[in-house]
Write a structure and sequence with these properties.
The protein is mainly alpha-helical. It contains 16 helices and no strands. The termini are far apart.
């Protein structure tokens, strides 16, 4: 059901976006960037009062999905509410011409995804008829000798390769048909496996050499495409590691909870570990982190993210040392030099 998928996605999504937020925050601190003055920011109450109703179509879609209706039905109601709410304010109203233009733009946007999904559907149908999908799984298992870690790495690579240059939906469908069976054969939970594959199918859009998302962002920003691509990998590093967590520690997905204290502890250590990854990639806390400090931060982050009490203790100790050294000892050193 939609609620089950939503519950399973909550923690992985939080960890992924938390990692990006940490990286961006440390990068901003390293560059000396600061936020806008508070008096220049719009008041939340004013924004909600003025434009809050525009979120109603999204709420309608979520409501119908939670009630068990299919996405197409929910989307149709979302469109209906969006059109109706456009008449609330004069400046947002759709006349006949703008409505036709909107439908045209929407159709064009959907066309690329639809074509990709049609092609993928044909490929998957052929794979199902010929049994190639299962054979690919057998090949992966024979190559990895049934080792879970190696199978996960092989599946990760295959998912990213299959997703290159394709829209998210099509890349996931293709990757799940080809890459997921090997992990399911090893006894992993199907939902966990599909989330694992989904993560890497999505991340293929920011992974060189065919990182469509990164190249698009570079074009918008007027930046160097290759630098943008590698920066996107750095920012999304947590996304490359988090999927391994919910295979090895499925309790962090709220659909697999057996003990809430264990789940909460695993989530908290993963959050701290993701922060450690940001320190390792950005090389900054309040001062520049030396290379050995970044290495220790990375090691500590991995120990915290991977489940296990001894690893958590060791990872917390390493990360605490790096932070303490950076905040206290390096601060004293910089003051003495000044």
């Amino acid at each position: 059901s939609y609620l089950k998928v939503l519950s399973a996605a909550v923690v992985p999504a939080i960890l992924f976006f938390w990692g990006i937020w940490c990286s961006l925050s440390l990068e901003a601190a390293k560059l000396g960037l600061v936020g806008l003055p508070r008096n220049t920011l719009p008041r939340v109450k004013d924004v909600v009062f003025k434009s809050g109703y525009k979120a109603i179509p999204l709420a309608v879609i979520v409501y119908f999905l939670v009630k068990g209706y299919n996405p197409l039905y929910a989307g149709c109601w979302g469109i209906i509410f969006a059109v109706l709410l456009s008449f609330v304010k004069k400046e947002d109203r759709l006349d006949f011409k703008s409505m036709i233009e909107t439908l045209e733009e929407g159709s064009k946007s959907a066309l690329s995804v639809a074509i990709a999904c049609i092609i993928v559907g044909i490929v998957i149908g052929m794979m199902g008829a010929t049994g190639i999908a299962l054979k690919v799984g057998d090949v992966i298992l024979s190559f990895t000798k049934g080792n879970l870690l190696m199978t996960l790495i092989a599946t990760m690579g295959l998912s990213m390769v299959l997703g290159m240059g394709m829209p998210t939906t099509a890349s996931y469908v293709m990757a799940s048909a080809v890459a997921a069976p090997a992990l399911i054969l090893l006894g992993c939970r199907p939902l966990d496996v599909h989330f694992f594959v989904f993560f890497y199918a999505v991340l293929s859009s920011v992974t060189p050499p065919v990182c469509v998302g990164a190249y698009t962002a570079a074009g918008i920003a007027g930046a160097d495409p290759n630098k943008t691509a590698f920066t996107s990998i750095k920012l999304a590093l947590s996304g490359f590691i988090v999927p391994f967590v919910f295979v090895y520690a499925p309790e962090i997905m709220l659909t697999n909870v057996e003990s809430w204290p264990t789940t909460i502890f695993a989530i908290l250590t993963a959050i701290v570990g993701v922060y450690g990854l940001a320190i390792a990639t950005e090389g900054f806390i309040v001062h520049k982190v030396p290379f050995w400090g970044r290495f220790l931060a990375f090691a500590g982050a991995i120990l915290l993210i991977v489940p296990g009490i001894y690893g958590d203790v060791g990872g917390f100790a390493l990360l605490s040392f790096v932070i303490f050294y950076n905040v206290k000892i390096q601060k004293k050193g910089s003051q003495s030099l000044a």
